[in-house]
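input
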Amino acid sequence: MALLRRVWFQIHWFIGITAGSVLVVIGLSGATLSFRAEITDLLNPIPAASAAPALAPPALVARVQAEMPGRRIATVAVSTEPGRAARIGFAPPPGERRGETRFADPATGALLPDPVGEHFFEFVEELHRWLLLPRDDGKPITGSLAGLLLLLALSGLYLRWPRRPFAWRQWLRIDFALRGRAFLWNLHAVVGTVALLAYVVSTTTGMYWAFDGLRKAVDGAAGEGRVVRAERAPADAPVTLDLARVWQAFVDTTGGDWTQVTLRLPARNGTQVEAVYLRTHTEHERARNRLYLQAATGETLRHERYADKPPLGRFVNSIYPLHMGTYWGLPGRIVMMLTSLGLALFAISGWMMYLGRRRTAKAVRAERARLDAVAVPATAGDAGQVLVAFASQTGHAERLALQTASALQAAGVAAVVRPVSALSADALLHFRQVLWVASSFGEGDPSDSARAFAREFARQSGPGLRHLRYGLLALGDRHYATFCGFGRKLDHDLHNQGAQPLFPMVEVDGEDPAALARWHDALRETFGVRDAVWPVSTAPVFDAWRLDGRRLLNAGSQGDPLFEIELRRVSGSDAVNWTPGALVEIVPRQMHDDGAPAPAPRSYSVASIPSDGAVQLLVRQARHDNGLGVASGWLTVGAPMGAELALRLVANPGFALPDDARPCIFIGNGSGFAGLRALLRERARRGHGRNWLVFGERQAAHDGFGADEVAAWQAGGLVARADFVYSRDQAQRVYVQDRLREAGEVLKQWVDEEGAIVFVCGSLEGMAPGVDAALTEVLGESGMDALIAEGRYRRDVY
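output
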């Protein structure tokens, strides 16, 4: 499928930048012709004297013939519309194909000067139909261009087909908040989709007019290609025409139900007059009726009514109105004019995106040359190198990956850059550290080149990547409904396979410098990248905080002790603020006062919100063979009250609440209640009550530390449902994932019908993959993929 998309993209791009420029000429000329008659009438008003009643065709022809003696009149066209000039067609001189056409005052029969603008419109029409080439040479070219436009429209539809095709907003919404290439692509795609039907109609009808063989085949199938031989008098017999009797017969036969009529007068030995007319309430401008009358007597010979034609015959007679849009009246003409003008928009936006890709490719080549110039040889094969893997649609992710690798090389860290399309799941077994730069395309999909890898990687199961440490830079655009969808899905799959993050995922909105600076900061701290390589750091600094409270929450529990830790800032009167769902990084005094090299800071989920007045944590003691964990032991036992520690707050946008009141489902276990509690407190503060908590612990008697607060929220209508699952209180152990399966129908309703966001906080082993499996069973694989890609599955697991 990815290969097919790439092929169609290349076809779409190649046609767009080659035939597209010529199609602009055809489109602009077509738009100019849309209101040709109205513009011509406006430029050529009939004299005021013409307010008198219009002459009947016999009198009109007599007046014109008297003014132009010796010129045979071949056709006369009149209209019941006041002020509309009569059109007189003279027979061509010997040796010529077309005769002269003149306009006449319908009230006096006086010939009018050549209409202003008529020659211009004839030029535009030849440009539109034949590109000013000889007719027989130009028609196949314009017909071929029409076919290419049809291919452009259909391939564009295929390339932008969204994951949820019935979500009409994805098809029709132009987001003017988008910037750069994202806006150009959005405008290009939406306008192309809106104009698609018009282009299908205009191109297929254009090919009908351009290719004689196609037109003859269609006409033959419709029965319109038959030639009915007109009755002829002997070659030397004079033409006998009584136009007065013919006209009266026409009026009698039609009952006066006509609005335009063209009379084709007999030539040489012809014996009949053809009257081609439109009824007063006609279906469209080409719904023509044909009445054949005896030239000498006015006797009706044959009457072919549009309404009596078979459906295919009516269709053939509707091709021109379909092409011009007049089949649907004035709205149709306006639509066809706008879509014709739209070809210029597509050409301009298409070229801008093409040139943008060329600029990006040039920048990528420059970055690759820079990387090659500072290459550091690996000393231990792949395992001694940092793999920088990128998934790029336009080249932006590749450029950032090359910049990242260059920075690592400059710091003396061996790095190798690979596109995701060149990787397999097994290839990751040969690396210990991977940095991902993952760009999302369209509505949160992987880039075309990364689709195969994404499918294969998502099918992997089990902790096969326990050895792997990774960092992830997810690129996206918040104006799309699905922000950083591929990056989030990749992070989710890496977690499920046991890989450990080097630092929290960094999500970048467009080219947000603050987000990119967080990526730079993470690389600086993890790999020692020099400051000169990146812009000035915007990461929060460590401040001095004081241990202000400590409370055991699970006395008597079968599990390890869990403490609520309360911390307050030591100095400064400025209020400390953070977004619920945030993390803290802590360096306890014991960790940097014992003379040993300082290890990486310990990270914890914040269990409180700013209005609580303090940073609260839920810290479970980590027990090892050689004693308590360094950080957890110091915080829960070793540190005296009032002890100071270094702390900084770290944003965690991947675990943030939505700005609106959408339903939220909170799932977790153990100390994972910390992150859930902060989010629930913030939801309660906002008054958003559509919340569902599913939380697991061992025993209600000893581990029910969150039950009272949740019960108070329920009583106040701020939690709609709460499921506490205590695994040791039952003969057969039940976990949160089991409760999710039991409540499957309700879960589907919340997620599928109400658009709920799912938050998971707690242990990576056991709970997180179990919840994953349960959600996949209930929602289906496609539903789960959509949940992740749309950013409605947010996890803080460890």
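quick obs: Residues 329-373 form the longest helix (45 residues).
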